[in-house]
Amino acid sequence: DDSKINNKNNSCREEEEDTPLCASPHSSTTQVEQTATSFCCSTFLNRKSILLCTARVFIRNKENKFVPVRAILDSASDINIISLDCANFLGLKKEKLFLPVSGICGPTQNASRKVTTSLSNLNGNYQWDIELMVLPKITDFSPATSLDVSNLKIPENIQLADETFYIPQKVDLLLGCELFFEFIKADKIRLNDSRLILQDTCFGYIVAGSTEPNSQINNATSHCFLSRGMDTLDKTLRSFWEIENVTCDSPPISEELNYCNEHYEKTHYRNSEGRYVVQMPFKA
């Protein structure tokens, strides 16, 4: 019943209806299919649209030049993420790893590559070394649909972090809590007659909050980001073997123990019943 589906808010999208946003494009085994799912939780909307915190940031490419990309600033993620397309575009060297990434509703997406580079703002007066997990996709276009901003009274002296925040566009990066609060500055402006807030950051003012109800977004979806890097399988196995490992640093063999070993080698035999027999050692 379509009406029942559309009326369910805050529920995860059914797997049969929607492809996971970050699902791996190829799955060869049942085990992979169980883990290669999105870490994003989606809900059906029929009222307002929520603006995520997006910014134009600059990433160093393989030629040592800073290139502008579009990022979501997300304080709920304990890792940083880059889309595969963006990593390829920048020509960054990918390092192998195995990192299960968990999120809302418990699904897991496996990251098998990471890149290390530098992040900067437009003026270059803020710069960070950053490690990014490579995933096939971060999310669909954000926002989900074009927004009417003609009535927004944004002060003319404000430099926005993403001047086209109202136009649906792809997302290249997700920058998590590690650096989130280093981005944030003190100034905050609440726009009149709206629930939108301008928050100052080192990239400019980000626009966040909700817009007025829009009949054009009945079938749009919202995305809740909460990603967490889990202990890797390699680390778990290594810990297991360290616990189970028998130390080879045994103390030197005493003279008595050495005598017992030699006595056993010289005197033991196997009888007709299949039992081992050894003479009792006695001290001289």
Overall description:
By secondary structure, the protein is an alpha+beta fold. It is 18% helix and 32% strand. The chain has helices at 2-6, 30-35, 84-90, 177-183, 233-244, 255-267, and strands spanning 40-44, 50-51, 54-60, 66-73, 81-83, 95-102, 108-120, 127-135, 173-175, 184-190, 195-201, 204-210, 221-225, 228-229, 269-270, 276-277. The protein is elongated, with a radius of gyration of 29 Å. The termini are far apart. Mean pLDDT is 76; it is low at 1-46.
From the structure above, extract its key features.
single chain; 284 residues; alpha+beta; Cathepsin D, subunit A, domain 1; 2 domains; 6-stranded mixed beta barrel; 4-stranded antiparallel sheet; 6 helices; 16 strands; disordered N terminus; Peptidase_aspartic_dom_sf
